[in-house]
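Case study 2.
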Amino acid sequence: MTFVYLSINAGLVGAERDGRNLIYRPSLDRMDGLLAYLTDHCCQGRPCGPVAARRRAHC
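Prediction:
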């Protein structure tokens, strides 16, 4: 499966036919929701960012 196919199935991207072409557009509301969820839950309560990532790499 391709990234585009998985993104369409997840509702993150929509496809619209224009003649023989397919136009892919992001679903910004769904992507905002996904990013908000990942930001809230990514670091298990610790601050997110490069510093936290570096600390985790040394554990």
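The helical segments are 3-9, 28-41, 50-57.
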